[in-house]
Each structure stands twice: as structure tokens, then as C-alpha cells.
Amino acid sequence: MLVKITPREKEWSRLLKQEKIFLEKGTRKKDSKLNQILEDKVPEKLQGTLDAAFAKAFETIFEKGTGVLEKTYKKEELERQFKINSYAVELKEDKKSLRKFSRKTDTANTKNLLLSSVEGVGLGALGIGLPDIPVFVGVLLKSVYEVALNFGYSYDTPEEKYFILKMIETALSYGDDLAQGDQQLNEFIEQSAWPQDYDQGRQIKITSATMSKELLYLKFLQGIPIVGAVGGAYNTIYLQKVLKYAKLKYHRRFLTDNETDPFPDDAC
Fold first, then answer.
1. Name one Pfam family in it (predicted).
2. Where do the structural domains in the chain lie, given as residue ranges?
3. Residues 34, 231 contacting (CB under 8 angstroms)
4. Residues 128-168: pLDDT tens digits?
């Protein structure tokens, strides 16, 4: 007897395939020729400086910058659109209604990627590297916040900040670190509980260190006038990677939270 697969189960299977592709691409890091050229030219203290700059940016925005970011997008409109999309799913759950959430996310992400590109290239051409970090983190969090709202989630509670910080860290990790981070996020999604020993300050430092390690050479290059435009352009590449992963994780949360029976992990 054939068992009919529901539209939600099909969407879950599709999601697992997309997650698998993302994880496989991050199995190992491939150093570019540019990184190899810059390896001996980057000052030893730059890593620590970047760590501190990223951490300060996260702390400042979490403490008093969320309201400023919310002025750059229509929060109430996004919340209203989520309710409309959810009602459409209740009326008729099919492929079209289930994918409206991610399609709305794609539209917002395109605008934010363009913003990041203009900001990164512009400041890079002027030889401005480190001062661009608060702007980059601001665009990054703004973009993630919009993804969260499109799937019906907030972003201002301690639990949601953990989820966001862990997502950013994991998206920019490789190999075992990527696999382990992904598993921890999935456990949070399934159990709605964060690690017992969680400390936001420590997680900010971990996420910041991961970001600075990944962007080290490019931020150094961005500090060189004219040539820095190349480094600034890479802001968009890393933002796109984080947003792609954030979309996968929020999509997983949405499907998990709105399903009475657990999905099989090997659905793909």
C-alpha cells in the first residue's frame, strides 16, 4: 500500500537536501590564492584587533542598536505578511503556500546584499577597513532579523540572540566545527532549550573570533586604498553565505514547530 506524502513532508525532504549540500560544501576550507599571497603580510596583532571590533559591534547593537536597525525595515508589515502566509497554509497546505515564506526572505536578502556590496566596495576604495565592521555587523543582523520575521520568529530575547550568534558562527565554520554547530542548532530547534552553561558574552567572543578568522585577510586588504575595493566586495559573499544558512535553519524551525509528528531525519 502506497503511503501518500504530504506537501509539508515533501518540503521537509527538500530542506534536508539543501542542508546536506551546504554541509558538504563546508567539509573543508579552500584557501584562495589571494589568502596565500597575503598570509605573510598581515600584522600579527590584526586578528586580536578584529576579534575585539566584531565583539564590540555585536554588544553595542544588542544593547542599544536593535531599535535603530528596526527603522531600516517595516517590522509590522513583515509580521502581518507572516500571518497572511500562515493563514494561506491553514486554508490550503500545498507547495505554493509553504514556499511563500522563503520567497519573501529571498526578496529582502537581495536588497541587503546590494547594500552590503555598495558599503564594502565604497569604504574599501577609500582604504577604510576596520571602521566598516560595525556597519557590516549591522547589515548582517538586519538581514538575519528580516529572515526571522518572515518565518514568524522574534530576535530580541536571550534565546533568539543565542540562536542568531550560533548560526553566524556555524555558517562561517568548516569541517567538524560546522557539523557540530549544525547539530547543536538542530537540538535547540527540536528541544527549544539552549546549553545549560550558555553565556552570551562568551558566545559573542566565539562568533566574533570565527568571523575575524574568516575575514582576516580581506579586512587587511580592505584597508589599502583602491585595492581595498576587492576586499570590500567580499562582504557580500560572506553575508550571502550566512543568510543562506539562516534561511535553512529558520525554515527548519518553522516546519518543526508546526508539525505534530516528528519528521524523520533521513527523509531525503
1. EcsC
2. 37-257
3. no
4. 344 578 888 888 999 999 999 999 999 999 999 999 999 99
Those residues whose C-beta lies under 8 Å from the C-beta of residue 190, and which sit 6 or more positions away, are: 256, 262
Q: How far apart are CA 34 and CA 39, in angstroms?
A: 9
Closest listed residue to residue 128, CA positions, set 55, 234, 56, 231? 231
SS3 content of the chain, % helix, strand, coil (to 5): 75, 0, 25
Residue 66, φ and ψ in degrees, nearest 5:
-60, -40
Record the cell numbers describing residue 119, joined without a space.
Answer: 558599503
Distance CA 32, CA 30 (A): 6
Cβ–Cβ under 8 Å, residues 243 and 165: no
Cα–Cα distance between 195 and 45 in angstroms, integer? Answer: 32
What pTM was computed for the model?
A: 0.82
Q: Supply 12's cell numbers.
A: 521537509
| Per-residue cell: 255 | 516546519
Q: Which three cell numbers stand for residue 259?
A: 508539525
Let me know if 3 is exposed, middle or buried by CB neighbors in 10 A (0-12, 13-18, 19+). Answer: exposed
| Residue 93 phi, psi dihedral angles, 5° rounding | -85, 105
